[in-house]
Predict the structure.
Amino acid sequence: MVRRVQSGDIELHAEALFSGGFDDGDVVPVILLSEAEAPSSRWPEPLRNGLAERAGGVIWFDTRDCGRSSYVDTPYVLEDLTVDVLMVLDAFGVDRAHVLGRSMGGQIAQQLALAMPQRVASLTLLSTTPGRREVFGMPEDWLIDKMTERLFNDPPPDGPGRANWLVDQQEWFSGPVFGFDRTAALAAAADEVAEGFRGPNGHGAAVVEAPDIIDYLEHIALPALVIHGTADPVYPVPHAQALAERLRDAQLVLVEGLGHELPDGFVGQLLDLVDDHIQDIVR
């Protein structure tokens, strides 16, 4: 099921999969919130299918300025991206959803839980942060150097060059346990480039300029599952520990050797973790 969702002047590409009837009012689906600069096609299909089967429904969409959604020339902030989530839920007639946010998507999930807790059944926060990098740990030095170099250089102009440019960063983010299949990653990146990949967008600025909400997290009483890799080079483990400590009802799961990635080999474990989290709420 595909929808074009209007959020102000922005048009969002959104998709949903329901294992039963779309009009089943008892279904509380999972909505997936992507990391920065990533189209929703990066959510593995087995994960989407598994969530649809276990939760009854799953929704995913391209964040503004990315993928098949509208590209934006004017600045925007995380609050704007949070409103976009609400517009997607409304477009599918969903009052409440289990929210699974990865990296930037996890920060949006926190904003949503603070602003509109009645729309959130639970939180799953994957490879994300409550903010305050200077307190909980900066990215590793080698990664800062590589990302800084990218900041001052445009991606290659040709399609294969752009695909390799995307995959290089994904490989930097990967941990040592699950391996990195560069051939498969290049094929997926080629599809992203064909869909109109334009290079870095405003997501990074929205994250950097986001207000510090860590002191407000204690007001979130929703059940939360914090999942984090021990080898995450972007957000060291103390970011996840801080989230779990400050949220009122949180469980922390550290995955040995996982980086800042969502590899195919981790999908089964992630499905089980999210399913157990959701079923605990139902029970």
The CA atoms of residues 112 and 249 lie 16 Å apart.
